[in-house]
Amino acid sequence: MKNIETRIDGNILTVTIDLSKRFGLSNTGKSTIIASTEGNQPVIPGVAMGINVYTKETRR
User: Fold this and answer.
1) Residue 6 pLDDT level (bands cut at 50, 70, 90)
2) Which DSSP symbol is given to 58?
3) How confident is the model at residue 19 (pLDDT cuts 50, 70, 90)?
4) 43-55 exposure pattern, b = at least 16 Cβ within 10 A, e = fewer
């Protein structure tokens, strides 16, 4: 995972993402990646999460 921290407390999943970080352009070049689980990731048995956080790239 890139720039994603998770914590489980009982039945509560807390996800922390630093919105100031950047990891370059997406494969298509249409957005700048801030955070990603890089596909679905297991949280607990039978539960998965998939997160992508990005900014739209403006054309110059």
Assistant:
1) very high
2) P
3) very high
4) eeeeeeeebebbe
Contact 12, 6 (CB under 8 A): no
23 and 3 in contact (C-beta within 8 Å)?
Answer: yes
Q: Are 28 and 52 in contact (CB under 8 A)?
A: no
Rounded distance between C-alpha atoms, residue 55 and residue 22, angstroms: 9
For 27, the token pair is 């494969």
49 near 40, Cβ under 8 Å? yes
- How deeply is 3 buried, as exposed, middle or buried, from its count of CB atoms within 10 A (0-12, 13-18, 19+)? middle
- Residue 10 φ/ψ, nearest 5 degrees: 65, -120
